Backbone:
């Protein structure tokens, strides 16, 4: 009887592992995990950003929304269907994740100086995700950020367009 009980328990654990839900944001180990774009440590929870996607449904973590937007823009192999989830920390409380595409963005001093923090509601001065995204794409990388997988322009010190 003990063998049967152990076998049932083992089968249950295997079944639970197989049914693991790979959705939603995951915990960030602040001060220990690096930004996928620039390689700097993610240290301020008010601006943490994550996206999930690709063939392996991997979570990619960033220290600033600008890094996430630029990283995603450079991933030519990714299509909109590859991006399954896009999360940003609610800068009002730094404990609640928001759907980045539904959040609103206000001007703020951010770790990589892209200047946008996410809030859950429309308020004075807030803009939509798409407005924020277009602003970041038009500006490009900041002086604070040197994307680790982008070629450098040796004369200007910046990232090649």
Residues:
């Amino acid at each position: 009887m003990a063998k049967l009980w152990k076998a049932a328990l083992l089968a249950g654990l295997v079944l639970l592992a197989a049914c693991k839900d790979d959705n939603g944001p995951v915990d960030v180990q602040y001060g220990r995990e690096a930004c996928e774009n620039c390689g700097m440590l993610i240290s301020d929870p008010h601006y943490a950003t994550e996206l999930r996607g690709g063939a392996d449904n991997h979570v990619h973590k960033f220290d600033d929304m600008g890094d996430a937007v630029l990283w995603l823009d450079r991933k030519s192999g990714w299509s909109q269907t590859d991006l399954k989830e896009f999360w940003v920390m609610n800068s009002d409380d730094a404990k609640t994740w928001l759907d980045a595409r539904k959040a609103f963005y206000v001007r703020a001093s951010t770790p990589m100086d892209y200047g946008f923090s996410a809030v859950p509601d429309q308020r004075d001065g807030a803009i939509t995700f798409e407005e924020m995204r277009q602003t970041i794409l038009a500006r490009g990388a900041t002086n604070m950020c040197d994307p680790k997988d982008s070629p450098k322009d040796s004369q200007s010190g910046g990232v090649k367009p």
Observations:
- Helices lie at 2-18, 65-74, 129-139.
- The radius of gyration is 19 Å.
- Strands lie at 49-53, 58-62, 83-89, 97-99, 104-107, 116-119, 127-128.
